[in-house]
Structures are given as structure tokens and as C-alpha cells.
Specification:
CATH class of the largest domain: Alpha Beta
Bound molecules: adenosine-5'-diphosphate, magnesium ion
Number of strands: 21
Radius of gyration: 30 Å
Largest sheet: 7 strands, parallel
Number of helices: 22
Strand content: 15-25%
Number of domains: 4
Shape: globular
CATH architecture of the largest domain: 3-Layer(aba) Sandwich
Structural class: alpha/beta
Strand order of the largest sheet: 11-12-10-13-14-9-15
Helix content: 25-40%
Distance between the termini: 46 Å
């Protein structure tokens, strides 16, 4: 028999939801599904929107997209189809007209000449305003402004309101105010309790709570502040640890340059200098290098690696895919073997023997540079003297994976030593995000492309006109150039994706019998994929049919035509990456985006922008607005992707204030700091390892 539950008084916010009236095991389980376990969690479960059922709004006001209460007189009403319980009616008030649709059998029957109070969502229809399935209200029912909570099956909005009311009651005596009162006075912000009351139980006289009003703003700023603090602390702890000092300019790098057919750009030189000054400092470098596709990040990485190697340490480069790791391995081996440096590959797809040999070379220090995928930070991997970790295409990894690899460098005999970290990304991170999500990193930008690149011409072609492309491919390959044909990404099915790629290759082989056509897709094993890529690189293949595996980093400068199927379904970042596979040399390059009609508005805008610009930063800004930061960074990337109230796009202008506040609180060693971090980030995010 279960022990009788005693209800502690007074209730506290950290107590279990089960202590609330009306919460038994069933409701508790439903709440747990939303990760809400304490009374405090309920308090912080904020409404996503409001229904204003208290105020009759005129049709002439801008109501599209809102749920509104309207009072209309019916001018005409008829069944939509004979014999069916469907009705369409025309209603009007002093300021406008609206069409009312009634589909089910149980809705109100709207009689011509009568006036009704109706509640529902107002949309823009073909002939003006529309409301479907209006709820009929009578004036006695008129309620206040009702919050609408994100919910889960079985939990009604009424239930939410009773839960929140109880949580607010508990909060009366148990809610810490963490923002300095001087700040609140200066900004005219309410206390936390008043703000939460306003948000959860808005009164009719104050109207629907708005995002820009003080109650919300104080929450937004508080949340941004908490994240800034967490990142600052993490950064601070990091700078307190020691790292090997690489103080000499690298000779090896000079020797590498003397063997190359090109000179580094000014931007490459500058960024490498910034890196080298970090490496000489004695505390771990944490630097993000941003550079658009083709800007030459690999050479900068090589310079950094050689600096570490010259000082007797090992460097590790982590790439997001096996394909890319192997390409890097080949390039680096070609660059560095003549300098007497051993470059080791470590990937999950090696044979057991190769892997064992690789592991041994890392552990005994004979491998000076190791290149690999996620396989690099697995448990069995032990380094002799890891001094530098380089992460390529950072957006593909989470913060924690980066940290896991950096942990490899904390050698027991060199307690407290951490390797330096260099993070490279071609996905330009908009200023807003860089400022916040990457507050723990210093940023260098390679803002110059190697000379002699010609801009890529981007054209849009309807998928049913793809025949036109055959001649284009034939001409391009006839001139000794190469082309990519990228097949659509098919969610959740590598098998179907591979089939689509195979049948496309077959179709192209029939249409272009004189060309050598290759194929890579995700169902091939690494060796097959590599062999095929190598053949393409060696120009033994003219046209490469591929799934989106070629997205990141693949470098074949002789390729000048990129054809992307189903471009309308891809995001800007991915399209930009794919397009970046061409235009890598002096040849004029083309990118063809195939799309299907009808095009959704957003897709049309994306493709239009792709045609208009090659500027990765502009594309990234647009991507941020369209998709939001969570998707761009990936949810694992940063706690910031999971903001509860704030939104990096809408609330960008508050970041500066949050930053200043973070500095102030840190300077005065405010006791509010841990409480803020706990409240907004909680235990879920662990910063402990850094
Ligand atoms: P990304 O920044 O996209 O990783 P890569 O490092 O792959 O770019 O470089 C793209 C291509 O440009 C490679 O073929 C590389 O050898 C070449 N490259 C790099 N730096 C220069 C330079 N300064 N001048 C000419 N070519 C360069
Ligand atoms: Mg690259």
C-alpha cells in the first residue's frame, strides 16, 4: 500500500506537481511528458497566445490571423450543398463584412437578419475575411482574455488555468526576484511576480499581453542574461586552465607554402596570425574561423596544425562525414608527407586492423596529425600529446562533442592541461547568433576568396524541363569540365534515396552515352564512395550523380556545373553549400536549381535569393529569419537554441543590454548568478566539463 501523501505547508515551487489539487498520477504523467515535474515548472510554462473573448472587435480592425470575438448581423445564409449539414453565411458589422463557414452538423444555425456574437479565427479568404466553425457566445458568457498553453493530449486549457492559478499562489511567497531593483526601476519593469501574473492572468482592462511590454521584456532580458552568464563562466573557467604554449612561428608552414602553387590570401595570413597569437598564450585557444565555402580554411588549419606539431604535440582534425575526413586525409598527406609528417586517418569505417594500427600510432605519438570523424572521441582513442583540436564544419557537431574531443587532451601526467581548439565553419553565423550562441569563442573571419574566382551563375529550371539540361551537361563535359547532379534528399529513407540516385544515373547514362557517369550515395560503403570520389577527382568521371553526401567540403576545382534536384525543398544553407562545390577555379560556373510547381511562397523566396546573391552572410541572415536559430544551429549546439521566452531574431536588440548586465553581475560577483543560471538553464545543460 502506498504511504499516504502528506501535503507540506506551505507549498514551495520546488515541490512536486503531484501536491497540487487536481493532479493525480495520470495528470502528473501527462505533465512529465512536457518535462514539467515541479510546481515551479508550471509557473514557467508560459502561454503561446491569447484568446480575447472579452472584447468585441470591429471587422474593420486588422484581424487576419487572430482569434477574435465579433458581433455580426447575417445578411444571407444558405446550405452549402443540398442535403448536407453545411452552411455558408454572410455577416456584417458597421465596419466590414465576413463569410462564415459551418461544416459540421452541430454548429449554430445562422438566421438571416439575426445578430450574433461569434468567436473564432479570422482568415483572409478568396473574397475577403472568413471565419470557419465560429463558436457562438451569448453576452452572459463573455469571459476575459484567456491564455492558451502548449499542451499535450488529455490536458485541457481549463485544467492548465487551474494548475497555473495554484502555482501563482505558491509563487506569492516563494519566488526570488533576481534582477537588481535599480535596473527594474530604471527600465520601468515590474517585479517577476507581477510580470508572471500579467502573463498568466491578463485582465481585460490591460488587454492582451504583448511581447514588447515590460512584463515580457523583463523575462526576455532575464533569460538572455542567464545564458550570457553561463557562457561567460564557461569561458572564464576555460581561461583558468593551462595549455601548451606554441610560441615559435612555424618553419614547417613556411616550407609547406614554398611547395604550393599559390600564395595565401591576406585574409588567410591574418587569421593564421590571430590563431598563432592565441597558441602562444599558455591558456587554451577557443577560436571560431568563419569563411565562406572556398575561402581556403583548410590551409589555415594546416598552418595551425604545423605550429602544434613543430612544438612536439599532436593535432587532431574532426570532420562531419567519413567522405570529408578521407578527403582531408588525402590532401593533408599530400601537403605534409613531403615535410616528414605522418598523417593518420581514423574513421568508423576502417577495417579492424587499420583501426588498431591507427590507435597505436596515436597512443605512441608516431602519428602527428590525425584526421577522423566522430570516431575520434570514442573511449578507446588515446593520444600521446594532443595539443590542438580542429573541428571542421562546426555546425554539424554539438558543443558537447567538441568538448569530448578536447577532454582527450587532458593527460594525467599533465594535469590541467587542455588542448587548443580551432573551430571552422562555412555556415556564416549571423552577427546576432555569433554574439550569443558563440559567446564562448573568439571569432576570426576569412573575408576574402582566393583570387581569380569567377562568380557562379545560378538559374532556376522547372523540373519537367530537365531535358534541356542534357545538352548543357554535354557541352560542359565536352570542354573538359565536370558536373554534379544532386538527387533529392529523401527523409528517413536512405534506401529510397539511393534508388532515386540509381535511376537518375541510369537515365543520364542513356541520355549521355558518351560521358563517364559516376554515382555516390549513402548506401554505399566508405570504400566504394571514396573510390568513386577519387575517380571524379582524377577526372576519370565526367558527371557525378550524388545524393547530398557531397554537400560539405568536397573539393574538385575542375567541376563547373552543379545541378540540384528538388531545390525548392532544401534550405538556404544547404543550397549554398552544394553550390559551393563549383566555382572553385577560374572557370565560369553554373548552378541549376530544379524545382516543382506549384512553388510555395517561402520556397520561391529562397530560390529567388539564391539566384540573386552568393553572399553567404546574406543567405545565412535570411535563413535565420525563415527557420529560426534552433534549426540552424541544431538543438544540441547550444542552450540558446532552446530559449524559453526570448527569440534571437525578434529580441536581438536586447542582447546588448543582457551582455552589459552579465558583465556587471560578474564584476560584483553577484549571488544572483548561480540562481539565474539554475532558473533558466537548469541542470539539463552541463557546463561542468569545461
Ligand atoms: P573551404 O574554406 O571551403 O574549406 P578549401 O580550403 O577547401 O575551402 O579551399 C578551396 C580551394 O581553394 C582548394 O582547392 C584550395 O587548395 C584552394 N586555395 C586555398 N587557398 C588558396 C589561395 N590562397 N589561392 C588559391 N587557391 C587557394
Ligand atoms: Mg572545407
Amino acid at each position: 500500500m502506498a504511504a499516504p501523501r502528506t501535503r507540506p505547508t506551505p507549498l514551495k515551487l520546488h515541490h512536486s506537481v503531484e501536491l497540487l489539487t487536481g493532479v493525480g498520477a495520470r495528470v502528473a504523467a501527462q505533465l512529465a511528458r512536457l518535462s514539467l515535474t515541479t510546481i515551479g515548472d508550471i509557473l514557467w510554462h508560459l502561454p503561446t497566445r491569447y484568446e480575447n473573448r472579452g472584447q468585441i472587435l470591429p471587422l474593420g480592425a486588422h484581424l487576419v490571423g487572430q482569434s477574435a470575438l465579433i458581433q455580426v448581423t447575417i445578411s444571407e445564409s444558405k446550405p452549402l450543398m443540398r442535403g448536407k449539414a453545411r452552411q455558408v453565411a454572410q455577416g456584417f458589422d458597421d465596419s466590414g463584412d465576413i463569410t462564415l463557414w459551418q461544416f459540421g452538423r452541430f454548429g449554430p444555425t445562422l438566421q438571416t437578419g439575426q445578430t450574433y456574437l461569434l468567436f473564432g479565427e479570422i482568415r483572409e479568404g478568396a473574397h475577403g475575411l472568413e471565419m470557419a466553425q465560429p463558436e457562438m457566445m451569448n453576452s452572459a458568457q463573455l469571459e476575459a482574455i484567456l491564455p492558451v498553453y502548449p499542451s499535450t493530449e488529455g490536458l485541457s486549457q481549463t485544467k492548465w488555468r487551474t494548475l497555473v492559478a495554484q502555482a501563482l499562489n505558491v509563487a506569492l511567497d516563494d519566488l526570488d526576484e533576481l534582477l537588481p531593483s535599480t535596473l527594474r526601476q530604471r527600465e520601468g519593469w515590474p517585479s517577476l511576480l507581477v510580470a508572471l501574473q500579467r502573463i498568466h492572468v491578463p485582465t481585460l482592462s490591460e488587454g492582451v499581453p504583448q511581447r514588447h511590454e515590460p512584463a515580457y521584456v523583463r523575462l526576455i532580458v532575464e533569460e538572455l542574461l542567464a545564458h550570457m552568464l553561463a557562457l561567460r563562466l564557461k569561458r572564464y573557467e576555460f581561461t583558468q586552465t593551462a595549455a601548451p604554449r606554441f610560441y615559435q612561428k612555424s618553419n614547417l608552414y613556411q616550407r609547406l607554402l614554398s611547395r604550393l602553387s599559390f600564395k595565401p590570401t591576406g585574409a588567410q595570413d591574418r587569421v593564421l596570425r590571430e590563431i598563432q597569437s592565441d597558441l602562444a598564450r599558455g591558456s587554451p585557444m577557443l577560436r571560431l574561423v568563419q569563411g565562406d565555402v572556398g575561402s581556403g580554411k583548410t590551409l589555415v588549419a594546416a598552418g595551425a596544425a604545423l605550429t602544434a606539431i613543430e612544438h612536439g604535440y599532436q593535432a587532431a582534425l574532426m570532420a562531419p562525414t567519413a567522405l570529408l575526413a578521407e578527403q582531408h586525409q588525402r590532401n593533408f598527406a599530400q601537403w605534409l608527407s613531403p615535410l616528414g609528417i605522418e598523417v593518420q586517418l581514423l574513421s568508423g569505417q576502417q577495417s579492424a586492423g587499420e583501426r588498431r594500427a591507427g590507435l597505436t600510432a596515436l597512443a605512441d605519438g608516431s602519428a602527428q596529425l590525425v584526421i577522423g570523424t566522430h570516431a575520434l572521441f570514442q573511449e578507446q582513442v588515446v593520444f600521446d600529446r594532443l595539443g590542438l583540436v580542429i573541428v571542421d564544419e562546426q555546425h554539424r557537431f554539438g558543443v558537447h562533442q567538441r568538448l569530448a574531443l578536447s577532454d582527450k587532451g587532458t593527460h594525467p601526467e599533465r594535469a590541467g592541461h587542455r588542448p587548443h581548439q580551432l573551430v571552422m565553419t562555412a555556415t556564416p553565423i549571423p552577427r546576432t547568433l555569433a554574439m550569443s550562441a558563440y559567446a564562448d569563442l573568439d571569432v576570426s573571419i576569412i573575408d576574402e576568396l582566393p583570387p581569380g574566382r569567377t562568380p557562379i551563375t545560378t538559374v532556376l529550371v522547372r523540373a519537367d524541363r530537365r531535358e534541356q539540361l542534357i545538352a548543357r551537361i554535354s557541352a560542359v563535359c565536352g570542354q573538359g569540365r565536370q558536373a554534379y547532379w544532386v538527387c533529392p534528399l529523401i527523409e528517413d529513407s536512405e534506401r529510397i534515396e539511393a534508388q532515386a540516385a540509381e535511376s537518375t544515373a541510369e537515365y543520364l547514362r542513356e541520355s549521355l552515352p558518351h560521358l563517364r557517369i559516376g554515382l555516390v550515395h549513402g548506401r554505399m560503403n566508405a570504400a566504394e564512395k571514396n573510390a568513386e570520389m577519387a575517380r571524379f577527382k582524377a577526372h576519370e568521371v565526367d558527371l557525378l550523380v550524388a545524393t547530398t553526401v557531397v554537400e560539405v567540403g568536397v573539393d574538385v576545382p575542375n567541376a563547373s556545373l552543379m545541378i540540384i534536384e528538388n531545390a525548392d525543398r532544401m534550405g538556404l544553407a544547404q543550397l549554398h553549400q552544394l553550390r559551393g562545390r563549383v566555382g572553385r577555379g577560374r572557370i565560369a560556373s553554373y548552378c541549376v536549381l530544379l524545382f516543382d510547381e506549384p512553388l510555395a511562397d517561402k520556397a520561391r523566396a529562397r530560390l529567388g535569393l539564391m539566384r540573386e546573391t552568393q553572399d553567404g552572410f546574406r543567405l545565412a541572415e535570411a535563413d535565420l529569419v525563415q527557420r529560426g536559430p534552433g534549426e540552424i544551429l541544431g538543438t544540441r549546439q547550444t542552450g540558446l537554441a532552446k530559449l524559453k521566452v526570448a527569440d534571437l531574431v525578434q529580441d536581438e536588440h536586447w542582447l546588448e543590454l543582457a551582455r552589459t548586465l552579465a558583465d556587471e553581475l560578474i564584476a560584483e560577483q553577484s549571488p544572483a548568478i548561480p540562481a539565474l543560471i539554475r532558473r533558466w538553464i537548469g541542470a539539463a545543460q552541463h557546463y561542468g566539463q569545461v
